[in-house]
Amino acid sequence: MNLLHSKQNFYRRDIDGLRAISILLVLAYHAFPEAIPGGYIGVDIFFVISGYLITKIILEEINNKSFSLLNFYSRRIKRIFPALILVLFSALLFGWFFLTADELKNLSGHVVAGAIFSSNLLLLKEAGYFDASAELKPLLHLWSLGIEEQFYILWPLLLIFFKSSKFKLILTLICIGLSFSLNIYLIQESVTSSFYLPFSRFWQMWLGAILAMQWDQINILVKKVESYFIYLGFFLIALGVMLLSKNSSYPGWWVLLPTFGAVFIILSKSESFLNTVLTNKLIVGIGLISYPLYLWHWPILSYLHIANGHAPSIHWRIAALILTFILAIFTYFIVEKRVRANSKKYLPSLLILLIFVVGTLGYLIHNKNGFESRYKKIIHVDQSFKADFLRWEDTGLVPNVDCVNSFKFPKWKVCLQSNDTHQPTAALIGDSHAFHAYWGVSELFKKNENLILLGQGACLPFINLSDQLGGTKCAESIDKLYKYILNEKSIKTVFISHRFFYINHESTSRQIDLFERSVDETFSQLKDAGKKIVYLKSVPEPVINPKLCVGGLPWGRALPKEACDFLHQADLDRQKNYRLAIGRVLQKYQEVIVFDPRDYLCEITKCSLVIDGKVMFMDENHLSRSGSLFLGGRLASYLDDKPNK
């Protein structure tokens, strides 16, 4: 069985043309998402091309008995590392002068992940690819590079380990089936996991690999119709661009459109007009610089967004794309080509050392919390605001004591009670949003009463929580705390507070249903136990660092007039699925007291970061001490108006 097509053992200009189509789609989507809503599928085309080309190269060398893992990885290092090192270092250097400490800390973490090709795994732990915060992550796009390099580590080992050609083919087909099935399974459970996990994406590269392995056999089968393949391929890709958007459940079944679109174009040997387009000198040239184009475009657009405090104008976005092309051309001709042409044996080792140095710089900056001291003269926060930006461990809220029932962070165990001379009479349970609410709620329980803070960071505070909404550790911890609350007769009132983002626009119908069930069961058990329930809805969330509203700005930064009074409707849209879900459950429990912070932080069209000279937030989603006390006062008045509930 022939595992390497002989007729295609030469450079194909149309493949570089297809690369150009891929990168142009990605650039268009990121610069003009309203006009090209499905342009992100360009990355999926890259995956198929990568699988095809890398398998073709490896099998050719295996057949010639010239394959060496050392040579293979040396070539990959010379191909990937130079431009990546340049972009990572540039992003970090620019961020040093341009970003606040929190922003630089986050960026440096992504520099580390980018240097070890694990950006997709880091982003999986953070927000989704299509979240609003995505525009504030200059290295977000490295997720796809992470998946490709993870594939390049695994695939050559499998190809050389299994000697039988037939077994290689069977293995590849099985891998495609398992990987695609995982993608379909995860799209029902977690869209973000399906998007970022390597094993739910590898099937696209394995599909490209099949083309290289079975080229002659496939061409015999499709000989009579292959002249139409280029039209079918472009049609499928165009269909994906038109039908998909950031709200689509992607990848899932939708990913078949760009994936098979790429497969059909690679299979095509047509001399049609479309093939002439793909082999056009300009298009091929864009394909040749597609890698540096991809690396440079997103940091430039992201920093531009950060600089403006909002989405930049069309003119600025066009300028960003022009700069992207200039830097990509420079990177390709001055850096990439020279490195690839250099045959010095020490060069791969030198490149590994350089990327290690850049990654280490990122680690040090992250470990030092973004070196806040570097910009004290640039961004000055007035003394009256400084207490609102202290880290929680620096506020006295994290006492060094031990207790059975507590609030847990990854690094801390927090034992907080408003009046520990009394038995707890009320409990505040939740994630970190319960923690930020503690200042305000505890003011209600100072005399002859006692509020205890319970919960765990990044865990929804509801009974029998599904693994899909927080994992086994969350469920075990929260269920244990509720057992204490339900059995502790002195606790009469239970406050529940959490962030909305567990249920967002990427949440599947199953996740929403599981959320509603857990909330329902929690309210039901608390009601049966005779507890008074006060549910604190999720706070509106600003989309910028609040420090920028009460201090000076780092070099090059600007804020639009409306930035510190963020749009109310936009925030409601982000929280839509959560508010609908919690609303459906609350309709069944009229006795639950519902307190909505946005009634006090927002007007009809806007929500305010600063009220009565006090900053309401300490970061992009947590209340400051002043904000918590402000809402605590409003909560006290609200509860006084509902004495019988």
Helix-strand blueprint:
Blueprint lengths: L12 H19 L10 H22 L5 H30 L2 H15 L3 H7 L16 H20 L3 H25 L1 H6 L5 H12 L1 H8 L6 H15 L12 H12 L5 H6 L2 H8 L1 H19 L5 H28 L5 H21 L15 H4 L20 E2 L4 E2 L11 E5 L1 H11 L8 E6 L15 H16 L5 E5 L11 H20 L3 E5 L10 H4 L14 E3 H7 L1 H11 L6 E3 L2 H4 L4 E3 L1 E2 L2 E2 L9 H16 L5
Parallel strand pairs: 1-4, 3-4, 3-5, 5-6, 6-8
Antiparallel strand pairs: 1-2, 7-9, 10-11
Helix pairs in contact: 1-2, 1-14, 1-15, 2-6, 2-9, 2-12, 3-4, 3-15, 3-16, 3-17, 4-5, 4-17, 5-6, 7-9, 9-12, 11-12, 15-16, 19-26, 21-24
How would you describe this protein?
This protein is mostly helical. The protein has 2 domains: 13-372, no CATH class; 384-541 and 569-602 and 625-640, Rossmann fold, CATH 3.40.50. It has 26 helices and 11 strands. The strands form 3 sheets. The chain has a 7-stranded mixed sheet, with helices on both faces. β1 and β2 form a beta hairpin. The longest helix is centred in the first third of the chain and has 30 residues, at 69-98. It is elongated. Residues 1-9 have low confidence and may be disordered.
User: What is the count of β-strands?
Assistant: 11
Q: What summary fits the major beta sheet?
A: 7 strands, mixed
What form results from the Cα inertia axes?
elongated
Beta-sheet strand percentage?
5-15%
In whole angstroms, the N-to-C terminal distance is 77 Å
Helix content: 55-70%
Roughly how many Å is the radius of gyration? Answer: 28 Å
For the residues shown, what is the average pLDDT? 89
Contiguous low-pLDDT stretches (5 residues minimum) are: 1-9
Q: Give the class from helix and strand content and strand pairing.
A: mainly alpha
Lateral strand order in the biggest sheet: 2-1-4-3-5-6-8
**Helix segment count?**
26
Number of domains: 2
